[in-house]
Predict the 3D structure of the following.
Amino acid sequence: MTVYAIIGGTGLAQLEGLTIRQSLAMSTPYGEPSGEVQVGEFGGREVMFLARHGHPHRLPPHKVNYRANLWALKQAGAQAILAVNAVGGINADMGTGHFCVPHDLVDYTSGREHTYFADDLERVTHIDFTQPYSQALRERLVDALKAEGSPFSDYGVYGCTQGPRLETAAEILRLERDGCDIVGMTGMPEAALARELELNYACLALVVNPAAGKSSSVITMAEIDQALQKGIGTVKSVLARVLNAA
Ligand code: HPA
């Protein structure tokens, strides 16, 4: 049976309903992961959980040790990763509260530790990343979203920015011209590192605000928090459905 791990993003520092059997404090050659890897039962089966930003939330997107996080999950035995990400909506069809299971991404980040093949010149590997997300996992997420009955898109290009500031309106227009439907700060290098470790990986994105310039009001943390609070119940149900059906 495939061993699943969930990486919880903003608003999901804790997976309520997870019956924790073990909390693994792991260290890796790349440093410390964001927190302990919790192993327990959720959605009727065994799963691992890691809070991307730590619990309580303390690491901004550019400070997350993505290499340690993915390495720790792999060491703990994970084979498939369900990543939860809060995003801004660029595509007019993807407003606040909408879910998106992206099929592709564009990486705008810089200066992050983004590969396991940085130092060892003999081991340099160029992973194929034509399709950054696992199609099989995406289908499972889509089936769960359908069953849940919440509005979602079964496609989307995730633009990953460096943060922690939000984007300018011109930057969002550029992302839109590049084909991006949603924008977030944590999708990369996470997805690429998962591929380097041969972990299947898919993203469940929840739109928590219209991206910069896509509405007439300024983007506030209060607005984002409210959208997260509203959507997180559905995130958990969708994850439970995926695990239950797997
Ligand atoms: N931009 C980047 N990251 C985000 C946003 C946004 O508008 N909303 C939530 N994460």
Observations:
- The first strand starts at residue 4 and ends at 8.
- Residues 124 and 145 are 38 Å apart (CA to CA).
- The radius of gyration is 17 Å.
